[in-house]
Recover the amino acids of this structure.
């Protein structure tokens, strides 16, 4: 009753107080975040493995499937998404919200170490922990300064070994990628007529190259080109001197039926 009597006796003060409450309410309403469906970030771990020049079927059989077998039943994982493409494979693990990602990373690493064997020239799996809405925050384009006549492709190794590694050491950076550039490969281009005259079959050469522990990722018989990964262990001269067979007491070398050269890989994408 006292509050009612006081309010009736001071109508101006009550009106001012009401307007102030209304004003502060409107200001707060404009700044109050409202979400009917709050955005929940599901933590993820991605595993990338490179086996350059390998066909998607080879990547799936030799890399993706063994990794999936090792990761099956991982505690906290709700979804496993696998992707195999030419020259690389990727597995993305999605975890429930609140998972201890440090422990999850260790568990993933321990399980991947159980994979019995990878192809000899496949890279070690690269593991990174990212959020469900992770997006690139910065792009850097490297180009030669005016007057520099050196081809930009010659900087590929420096960018990957020096620049990229320094970016990845920056606190808070989950991962970095190098887009563009072209790596070297050992390219063998067959002369079908010379091979036929010497009774050399492409599948036989594939077996011989594979026996040297070199990845022969794809063979395009129609274009008579067979590509192997260039790791630096073999030169074009070394490969050209490979003996394919003996004919009338004389060796038939790879260079007798094919052109062997070190060349840049064909472009499969462009950075614009």
């Amino acid at each position: 009753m006292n509050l009612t009597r006081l309010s009736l006796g001071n109508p101006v003060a009550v009106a001012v107080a009401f307007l102030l409450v209304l004003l502060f309410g409107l200001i707060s309403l404009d700044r109050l975040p409202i979400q009917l469906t709050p955005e929940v970030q599901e933590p993820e771990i991605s595993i990338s493995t490179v086996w350059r020049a390998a066909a998607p079927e080879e990547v799936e059989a030799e890399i993706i499937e063994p990794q999936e077998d090792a990761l099956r039943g991982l505690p906290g994982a709700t979804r496993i998404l696998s992707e195999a493409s030419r020259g690389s494979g990727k597995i993305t693990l999605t975890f429930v919200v609140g998972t201890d990602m440090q422990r999850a990373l260790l568990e993933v690493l321990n399980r991947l170490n159980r994979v019995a064997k990878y192809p000899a020239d496949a890279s070690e799996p690269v593991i990174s922990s990212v959020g469900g809405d992770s997006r690139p925050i910065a792009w850097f384009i490297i180009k030669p300064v005016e007057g520099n006549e050196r081809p930009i492709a010659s900087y590929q190794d420096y960018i990957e070994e020096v620049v990229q590694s320094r970016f990845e050491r920056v606190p808070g950076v989950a991962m970095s990628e190098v887009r563009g550039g072209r790596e070297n490969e050992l390219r063998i281009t067959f002369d079908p007529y010379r091979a036929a005259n010497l009774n050399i079959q492409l599948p036989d050469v594939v077996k011989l190259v594979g026996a040297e522990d070199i990845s022969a990722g794809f063979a395009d018989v129609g274009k008579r080109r067979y590509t192997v990964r260039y790791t630096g262990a073999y030169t074009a001269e070394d490969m050209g001197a490979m003996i394919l067979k003996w004919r009338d007491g004389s060796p038939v070398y790879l260079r007798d039926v094919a052109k062997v050269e070190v060349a840049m890989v064909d472009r499969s994408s462009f950075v614009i």
